[in-house]
Amino acid sequence: MKTDIAGADVGYAVHSRKQWGGFEFERYVPAENMILHGYFTRFDQVRGIGLLVSAANMFKDVYDSFDYALAKAKMMQLFGLKFKRDGMEPLGKTQKQEEEAKRNQRKIDLQNKASYIVELQEGEDIESIESGQPSVQFQDYTKLMIMTALKSLDICYSMFDENHTNFYGSRAGITQYVESCKPKRESNIRLLEELTYWKLANEIIHGRLVLPGSMTVNDLWFDWTPCGLPWWRPDEEAKGLLTTITAGFDSYGGVCRSLGKEFRDIIDERQRDEEYARQHNVILPTMTEKINLNIGT
Fold first, then answer.
1. pLDDT tens track for 91-145
2. Which of 222, 166, 170 is nearest to 194 (CA)?
3. Phi, psi of 171 (to 5 degrees)
4. Is 107 helix (H, G, I), strand (E, B) or coil?
5. What is the domain range of residue 288?
6. In the sheet where 9-17 sits, what is the strand order?
7. Which of 2, 208, 217, 256 is the most buried (most CB within 10 A)?
């Protein structure tokens, strides 16, 4: 990145990543031709911060911890045996040799996974060595790290673990998540609008898009609508949204956008449906009749 004497961005050097590491310079792009997307928290900031930077390191730590815990669990799953012998008087050299020969004759069959056969000598006992892995402390720590990392992305833990809370807690978490997404959606919409204007202007320059009369790109109308959430109880939520529209707190377009739809598209589709119904002599309820039906009048 290149800046002028005042600290403003002048241009950016674009590099490509090599196959075996490192970067290779490709081209230089002036700042006016760049569309940046990221967090800009200072007025003199010219390099944006990635949207996932705040959680990247924590997610990496959790990922590494899973690998370490899995390796430790695999190691602990190895079959371990501990032999115990009753206490006895010290043995002479000859007796030690005889005792060692007996131990060498001990038979342990571990090939049959359905059952293990161990032939013990007189006075011997055997215990299996095991360890509870992963430990409860590690599971609690991993859960805390996942919760913190998800919170940095405004995601509630109930989206990761459905059993973490009840239905109403999950519903409240989703509502808070949607509210936290609004400023990020606005940033994405601004980026998409700039890209759309650039794409339309490029199509006009190359003659693939011809505008009527003296119309310019700025005269074109378009809108980016984020995906909405499906209704939980359509009858109750429809009545509530209709009440907000009647009271003037919202509009049909605003309600449709919250559901991931466009009001104009709905009207056009309804018009096509009604025209098709008229052609087949089918009478559909009007919008007023449907509204009265929804509110129970």
1. 555 555 566 655 555 555 555 554 555 566 666 666 655 556 667 777 787 788 7
2. 222
3. -65, -40
4. strand
5. 225-297
6. 2-3, 9-17, 23-30
7. 256
Count other Cβ atoms within 10 Å, centred on residue 155.
19
Distances (CA, A) of 238 to 170, 231, 252, 259: 21, 9, 12, 11
What rounded mean pLDDT belongs to the chain?
76
**Same structural domain for residues 40 and 104?**
no
| 32 and 89 inside one domain | no
Residues 289 and 233 reside in one and the same domain: yes
Could you tell me where the beta strands, DSSP code E, fall in the chain? 2-3, 9-17, 23-30, 80-85, 107-109, 117-119, 124-129
Residue 209 belongs to some domain of the structure: no
Assess whether pLDDT exceeds 70 at residue 273. Answer: yes
Note whether residue 100 is domain-resident: yes
The SS3 call for residue 169 is: helix
How confident is the model at residue 124, as a pLDDT? Answer: 65
Confidence of residue 297 (pLDDT cuts 50, 70, 90): very low
Q: How many domains does the chain have?
A: 3
Residue 23 domain flag: yes
Could you read off the pLDDT of 188-218 as tens digits, one per residue? Answer: 888 898 899 889 988 888 888 888 888 888 8
Q: Is the peptide bond before 134 cis (omega within 30 degrees of 0)?
A: yes
pTM exceeding 0.85 = no
Kindly state whether residue 119 falls inside one of the protein's structural domains: yes
Is residue 49 domain-shared with residue 89, that is, in the same domain?
no
Considering the domain architecture, whether residues 92 and 42 belong to the same structural domain is answered as: no
Token pair 């989703």: residue: 174
